[in-house]
Design brief:
Layout lengths: L14 H7 L11 H5 L10 H6 L4 E6 L7 H10 L2 E4 L5 H4 L9 H12 L3 E8 L6 H4 L3 H18 L6 E6 L15 H6 L3 H12 L4 E6 L8 H16 L5 E4 L2 E3 L7 H9 L4 E10 L2 H16 L4 E6 L25 H11 L43 E11 L2 E10 L4 E2 L2 E5 L5 E6 L1 E4 L4 E6 L5 E2 L4 E9 L8 E3 L2
Parallel strand pairs: 1-2, 1-9, 2-3, 3-4, 4-5, 5-6, 6-8, 7-8, 8-9
Antiparallel strand pairs: 10-11, 11-18, 12-17, 13-16, 13-19, 14-18, 15-16
The structure holds (3S,4R)-3-hydroxy-2-oxopiperidin-4-yl beta-D-xylopyranoside (XIL).
(3S,4R)-3-hydroxy-2-oxopiperidin-4-yl beta-D-xylopyranoside binds next to loops.
């Protein structure tokens, strides 16, 4: 697809006009543990979040604080989703409307609700040319540089330890032009193309436990120039040690515009050593055509181990930013659409997410047929199989529990290559904390846990595993853990 079916920049004022042009503006995320645990072995899960959790993934929705007084909206969110992205509330214009004065009231409303339900939270977004307050445009280069860093520090600092992944930079690449062309913005004009790297470095320092994503639209086709540009940037970041953990495919699509190589595209990004998240999925259309498109996108994600979750950009067509395209899974009355059932079935058919990330080379052959798997959903005990990070994976199992505490064993497994050194991370659903740990080294504290190998168990042969263990305070929990190795 050489064209960009997407609203070229999601700016609020532009939405109405652009929507008419959207032949297909076309993204996703979630925490699954509690829900997964409630699915009996071998049974199909009955909600999107629980179904995604069975393969260690999340299924999220964009939520607008302004609709949280609609009880059906909140009930549907709570029932179906185990992750959330604030739709507008964390953007620069909402969080820092005037320089140095920060407001988090609306975003906090979403975050505290999500936390009370044990949901994963995606932070969206720190550096973006849209929904940017006008004061930013008037700054000198050096002022802009310090304002950008200050914005990242304050917003990430406010939510430190609570965010699963941040969209650090949003929509920086141009829609036309040669591979690697950035969109002209106040950031490129004053800071040069290096602003992206600067933002990622600042973000890592501000919250070392959050995954840092680059997020964009029209990077769904494996061969599109824009996709190649983002691919090359991530490859370069990885080669030079610039911190980046994930790429977000917004995937604002229409029924006819899901690229045939969509799965191959996810696989090629994953092969660079980053997670892939579908971050803003909506697919204009209706009926079986829309359902088929949603099925294909879902299967493309579940077929790639490092595709860790999907977020739909809203719950109901009624409140969608593209409501005229009826692009979501629930109609205006919150009834489940055909697309909903297609997604639920595809999630339930996913195989457990245990294999190491594939090492497919970028973009060659047509995409393999998506998930052929039609068998019943896998057994979910003891914990959802985690997404694979790097060359290793980790699974947490509760081995004992008592009022106010529990004991767990974490199995760290190498993929198809040997691992030399590993780091396992997870976020507690609520209130848990490690009281003692063995066979590993813990760093940091609070709800986000990081455990690296002990001096004697960092080397794991291909396909083999090692374990570490801990006792913890709070109620037994088996959150999804990620594993990375240098
Ligand atoms: C959209 C919101 O859904 C609208 O409510 C708002 O008016 C404009 O922004 N890309 C993004 C999202 O990264 O933040 C945009 O969200 C959609 C396009």
């Amino acid at each position: 697809m050489g064209e960009n079916p997407l609203p070229a920049d999601g700016g609020r004022r532009l939405v109405g006009t652009r929507r008419l042009l959207v032949a297909g503006a076309l993204g996703v995320l979630g925490t699954a543990t509690a829900l997964a645990a409630s699915v009996p072995a071998g049974a199909a899960a009955g909600t999107l979040g629980a179904a995604a959790a069975q393969s260690g993934r999340y299924y999220g929705a964009a939520i607008a604080a302004g609709h949280m007084n609609d009880s059906t909206y909140v009930a549907t969110w709570d029932r179906e989703f185990n992750a959330v992205t604030p739709e507008n509330e964390m953007k620069w214009d909402a969080t820092e409307p005037s320089r140095g004065s920060f407001r988090f009231t609306s975003a906090d409303q979403i975050v505290s609700h999500a936390q009370s339900k044990g949901m994963k939270i995606r932070g969206h977004t720190l550096v973006w040319h849209n929904q940017l307050p006008s004061w930013v445009g008037g700054l000198s280069a050096s002022d802009l540089r310090s304002a950008m860093t200050n914005h990242i520090n304050n917003v990430m600092g406010h939510y430190k330890g609570k965010i699963y992944a941040w969209d650090v930079v949003n929509e920086a690449f141009a829609d036309g032009g040669a591979v690697g062309t950035l969109r002209s913005s106040v950031f490129t004009q004053k800071l040069g193309n290096g602003f992206i790297e600067e933002a990622f470095r600042a973000a890592r320092a501000a919250d070392p436990n959050a995954k840092l994503c680059y997020n964009d639209y029209n990077i769904d086709d494996a061969n599109a120039n824009k996709t190649r540009g983002v691919y090359n940037m991530i490859k370069d970041f990885k080669a030079r040690g610039v911190p980046i953990d994930c790429v977000g495919l917004q995937s604002h699509l229409s029924s006819g515009s899901v690229p045939s190589n969509y799965q191959q595209n996810i696989a090629q990004f994953a092969a660079l050593g980053v997670d892939v998240q579908i971050t803003e999925l909506d697919i204009g259309g209706s009926g079986s055509a829309q359902a088929d498109a949603y099925r294909r996108v879902t299967q493309a994600c579940t077929a790639v181990p490092r595709c860790t979750g999907i977020t739909v950009w809203g719950i109901t067509d009624k409140y969608s930013w593209r409501s005229g395209d009826t692009p979501l899974l629930f109609d205006g009355n919150f009834n489940k659409k055909q697309a909903y059932t297609a997604v639920l079935d595809a999630l339930n058919a996913a195989t457990p997410n245990t294999s190491p990330s594939p090492t497919t080379s970028p973009n060659t052959s047509p995409s393999p047929t998506t998930s052929p798997n039609t068998s019943p959903s896998p057994n979910t005990s003891p914990s959802p199989t985690p997404p694979v990070g790097g060359a290793c994976s980790a699974t947490i199992e509760t081995t004992n529990s008592w009022p106010g505490g529990f004991q767990s064993t974490v199995t760290v497994r190498a993929g198809s290559s040997a691992v030399n050194g590993w780091t396992v991370k997870w976020t507690w659903p609520s209130g848990q904390s490690i009281s003692s740990l063995w066979n590993g080294t813990q760093s940091g504290s609070g709800s986000s846990v990081t455990v690296s190998n002990a001096p004697y168990n960092g080397s794991i042969a291909a396909g083999s595993s090692t374990t570490f263990g801990f006792t913890a305070n709070g109620s037994a929990a088996t959150p999804t853990a990620t594993c990375t190795s240098p």
